[in-house]
Task: structure prediction
Amino acid sequence: MQEKRIIVPTEEIARQRRVMAAVRAYAGPLGLRYHVLTFGCQMNDNDSEKLAGMLVEMGYAEADAPEDADLVVVNTCSVREHADGKFFGHLGILHSVREKKRPGMMIAVCGCLMRQAPVVDRIRKSHPFVDLVFGPSDLHRFPEMLRLRLTERRRVYDVGTEDTIAEGLPVLRASRTRARSTIMYGCDNFCTYCIVPHVRGRERSRPMALVLDELRALASDGYREVLLLGQNVNRYGMDTGDGDFAMLLEEVGRIPGLRRVRFMTSHPKDVSRRLLDVMRDSPNACPHLHLPLQSGSDAVLRRMNRGYDRTRFLQLVEEARDRIPDLAVTTDLIVGFPGETDRDFDDTLDVMDRIRFDNAFTFQFSPRPGTPAADMTDPVDPSVVTERFDRLVARQNEHMLAHHRRLVGTVQEVLVEGRDPGGIGRASGRTPHNRLLHFGVPVAGAGPSGILPEGTFARVLVTRVTTFTLEGEWKETLP
Ligand code: SF4
Result:
């Protein structure tokens, strides 16, 4: 498998950029518009930013809704439950929009669901209205495919099986102050419930020099925060010998103007002490570690093929908090994995009580076809799963509220994301721990436009809290 890993040559990217210019010459005068529908994780969001970047370079403008677009791109995710059923449902809706409101609208589909051969076969056989089909590793070839469709009226179904890295594509970022940067692709872990390694390919890291160049450019363009993305960022560089993630984070700490750096996801088995040291000493690494536990039971963790046990996880969080005392630790939890007993579930609640996570993404197990867990023969009764899930969510909510209550009366640094939809003279932003804070801004604190602009740093007094958010009052705007 590893020999399929391909770094797309710079000549090929240059060729695609020439294709973009050619498409622009053709499409630009027509005033064409695009709309991208994105499903799934932040890495898919980042891919959609690249699709949008290429489309703008090809002369397209963004449309707010599919019915206003000449081209709709559906960027799919196979991690979602019943992903294929939902995807074909969306295709049906788009087909109807095209038939009734927007004749001539082109439909392109991409993303990791396209790495599943039965899905592509079904599109080919039963959905001839789909114009372009390509996979997550084929993003850089999108301009060529679009050119063929526009000029030769050819439908293009072209899903590669290589695991590529493509540098130098244009990116249209969703935010002007917070940017995402995918530093590596794929995953080698093969957790038994997860489809990602089967559809996103083997682990492959971008060269460190290129990641740093991108981040420096973002900082000089005014971005204040970056989110480094990978399925398991702690394995960054392991495939290239080009430094490791701790080294990358240390280098990122030296980039002037980049005030905040976040990263996700960290696999607990691969977090090094050195990484924790770098987080502690870095001037811009946020005090936040997303560390998916999944289950607190050793038996379940073994069946999930997670590569750590509860003792190791508890020890890791203790070591992290020793170094960074105000560290926020968030997690992912799966309830009802096949064979999970009452005792296994109690073990999960026990780890939650010991750690008291700052936040958790909670899931009820559902099988993903093609994964080992889908063939496990000891499913948990759905009513038991629901009951356990409700208890787990209630426990997590208790912990979150307790964390938030301790913050009343403290002053938090906030990076403003925009206006609080809750009212005039209010703004919203995130603390370094990634907590959402809504706050009032007196006229004296607002900018010339009467609001605090996105990207401003402010100090805010926390006055009230709920389970999910903080509320407060502006104290001062920071330079
Ligand atoms: S670490 Fe496990 S859960 Fe995460 S992407 Fe890889 S296989 Fe999936």
